[in-house]
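User: For documentation purposes, I need each entry recorded in a consistent format: the amino acid sequence on its own, followed directly by the corresponding structure tokens. There are two entries in this batch. Please keep commentary to a minimum and don't merge the entries.

Assistant: Recorded as requested. Entry 1:
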Amino acid sequence: MSKLSFLDLPGIVSAQGSVRLPGSKSLSNRILLLAALAEGETEVRDLLKSDDTDRMLEALTTLGVKVTPVGEGVIKVAGCGGKVPVKSADLFLGNAGTAFRPLTAALALAGGAYHLSGVPRMHERPIGDLVDALRHLGADIAYLANDGYPPLQIRPGTLAIADNGAQTVPVKGNVSSQFLTGLLMALPLLNRTVTVEVVGDLISKPYIEITLATMRRFGVDVQRDGWQKFTVQAGARYKSPGVVYVEGDASSASYFLALGAIAGGPVRVEGVGADSVQGDIRFADALAAMGARITMGPNWIEAAAPADGVLKGIEQDCLAIPDAAMTLVPVAAFAQGPTRLTGIASWRVKETDRIEAMANELRKLGGTVETTADTLTVIPPASPNAFHCAEIETYDDHRIAMCFSLMTLATPLRILDPGCTAKTFPDYFYRFAEVAKPVPVIAIDGPSASGKGTVSQRVADALGWHYLDSGALYRLTALAARKAGVDWHDEPAVAKIAAQLPVRFAGGQTFLNDEAVDDQFRTEEMGIGASTVGALPAVREALLLRQRAFRQAPGLVADGRDMGSVVFPDATTKVFLTASAAVRAERRYKQLIDKGFSAKLTDILQDLEDRDARDAARPVAPLRQEADARLLETSDLTIVQAVNQVLDWSGNKAS
């Protein structure tokens, strides 16, 4: 997945099933760090395998902590008893905030010299409030670029000498809960009582609860006075609990619960449930408020659409579920009435500015979104049919990629850089495909004049499905370019036209916008234009997505020469429709004569044989019967017989 530049997701019609969740990112990295700082060896089970945990494991290994894989999702960590073995190191932590912030705190109190850096976006994510708190404790931390932001240089500070005294340190709580988390997790390295006072409101309180619960599992009980004061007593030391299991990731659960709510369901997530320590399970409450049917057990949650199929818009304070709340954006697109998300200012300092990113990408699909500094409002269209296919930029942000996969209930779309999900859920799209039912496709390929267009159109009409004449798209692109005054050799301009080609097939006619253009695009000139624009790689790429955009509910019948091999390789029914060259020549000859054109049968036969040879020999997607396609030889069949055979093979009944 990480090597793909894009992934085209088909439209879906429903979703049902169960998904076993990967381990929680938040819990995985907290457990790894505390296991490293503890006395004794810890066996960590169900550990998340992701970019974030990889960065933490690499850092711990560099710091001299022995980490031993013992099976899939299982490792053993030999704790250092609070004394980091390596006192000088250069650590690259990517864009892993759950590794960067806690390691900054722990290493600032470890008495060594450490250089911490990440990807450019990490260097734009604030860390100044945490650094200020650590400096208050005597840490020596320098900014290497911009004040308040990584990269950082840590040197031994004045805190290494134990004084057994008590100390109070302030930390701001309104930017990121990871500052307080990192500070609390590091304090047992000091032999003193420290009280942390939160300045201002504390956001993301459930993540602090995760931190406190994890510290308790390793033997350190933080005394809490509401959400303003947290005290770690002198003498507190981490001790291995022996074996620790990582809960399934509640944030990752949100995508599948949302899928169940909008696409019928039920969809069940396993690995996290009613007794979870993760606050993001409260995402299910927001779905319930919208009308979704939610049920829970000790280790599972299940979501289904409302009994009447209608979700309603809500106003939701998202302070307690900042990550999972992003998933409410696509859900809101399918609700009745606007949905307003508040308390999301922290989105702006995450992997990207998530408020603007989510708004921008939903607008690309045709959505209406309003934003402020800390709110986002989705105003859904009157019908999901108002959404259209587009490319979704993911901004190297895993959650944006996963959120927008839900929009496939309304339209096919293209996810750019799908590998960004490796940050928390490397196989997300495979798991999504396991529970999502794609819009069915009947792909009918065959040589020129085989009758596939006529058969395909009649099959589509019989089923009440959409129809795609793929062979017409290149001619239509050439025609649209001519109407726009664009030269056929201007690759970027023609590709832009191809990507947004306003074509539809209806009632046996072809329309550009609302203009019937059958007579215009079937001319010899547009045939030349089709060959010209079809030779441009960017145009072929744009038309690939444009063809896939026809995959809309309730289904699609597509005809061409590479429908089942390239455009819709997952088509539910594949047919290779053909006839002998002599029969095809006779059919075309009769068509031309009936339309009043003069024609010579021998010339038509020679032309078809030449074209068959070219189609079979072309280097990209040569014309051939795919291994999983049924052969339909129509030399001795009527149109009605051919249509009935396709319908029978597809298992669909005419409407």
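Entry 2:
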Amino acid sequence: MRPVYVTGHRNPDTDSIASAIGYAELRNRLDHDNTYIPVRLGDANAQTRWVLQRAGVSEPRYLPHIMLRVRDVMEQEFERSHGDESVRSVGLTMAQKDLDLLPIVDDDGNLAGVMTERVLARRYIRESREASSIADAPAMIGAIVDALDGELAVGEDHEVAGRVWVYAMDERWEDTGIDRGDIVVVGNRDDAQRRVIELGVALMVVSNGSRPSDEVLALAEEGGTAIVLSPLDSYVSGRMITLAAPCRSLMDREPLTVHLDDLVNDVTEEVKDVHYGAAVVIDHERPVGLVTRRSIVSPVPRRVLLVDHAEQGQSVQGIEQAEIVEILDHHHIGSIETRVPVRATFDPVGSTATLVIERFRQNGMEPSMEAATVLLGAVLSDTVILNSPTATDRDRAVVEYLEKRLDVDATEFGREMFEAGSDVSDATAEEIVTRDAKEYEVGDGTIAIAQIETVGPALDARRDELLTCLQKTRQRNGHAMSALMVTDILAGGTTLLVSGESAPVHRAFGHDGDDGVVELPGVMSRKKQVAPVILGAF
């Protein structure tokens, strides 16, 4: 089941995070075929942390991007073999399962290498016309017995590592090439059997179901030559011996590996270029999946549900690659584009949290006490305790409902919340001018407007510092204009600090503001009183 990530905008405020939490809860109750996960795109501010703590809710997990990761496309069900398994066993598995690659693990379950078709082919298609050998891939006699479906008649299981011969010549043939420690396949010829034992071979394989005489068996016992009885003919027996080598001796020890959170875009070319067309996904050295060429061709995108925004510049990084399943917002229709029709709500109320509560009630459900608490904080935050011009009768009805549900006084709750969130004495200028900053497209460029609520003139003494920081952040981000709304909830007004192209601001509000400071008494809402006016002036 692919999760649906429910997310607000970057530089999240209380409404953004609370709406993600509340709407994820509702969708999980209504849609049992999917899992909805609330996430955040940035650090929670002091106000939001206070609300979450009051509700006993943990911060949603941080989502740095929505781009496909390896874990999203990998094949989780895959074959693997141990390094002690024979080449024949591994080859049969690859043939039966139609595999181009098979991960090989060690005793600890860690990735040791991979077996590939190319490795197998290079093992058995050689330019050399010399005798076959397992000198570079020693095999246990027990593994050879298993490969031959044979019987160990003399000797004990131990490792052999010589050349492999089929002895078909007359016993008087002098230049056999056979040497001490080799492996020799012979038929039912007593003289040939004695001869190879005299040569000191490590293992003699008697083919075609033949059994040596007691004298030959005794001679082998005395000379230290193991004897295996094979039901197969001499040629096949010789080939099966070379297939009994452990696969670790032939595997590719430096396969292409990737990690769970690697971006698919970053590994695609490597997967395409490697001859076996796949990468092993490892987690703490253990193989946990495979990424193949097939899995990265038209992969299924990650899914996201957007709340409290519809601007691509405000959304999660990689949003253009994701599948947007729904948008729930109380702002204007932004620049987000979808590939297919989706359910999208743009409703002019004071807070997205209001829309979330209305959805609960429309479905005959009530939010949990935890969700109700954070959603109350969100409505009060976005409407400045219902004093903002954006506040509607629907917001007031939601607050009244939540007061009863939680048995709290909303005005007192809101005052505590704003007091807790307005302490910026320890905040840097960078943190202040980027907190809850939103980007807007204007012509071929962008502008940014941030907002911070204070209780009293807490930031008056830091205006020059904030203006300098605004200029630096504007230049760094390439904005035509950057502005900071310092909104005093007690005085019911805003001081607007501006850097960059200020003429539209002057046109919008009829103020000179050449020093970068514009006083806006009675202005409290960015969404209704500032952003649309400035955008219109551009």
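Summary note for entry 2:
The domain at 4-68+301-421 is CATH 3.90.1640.10 (inorganic pyrophosphatase (n-terminal core)).
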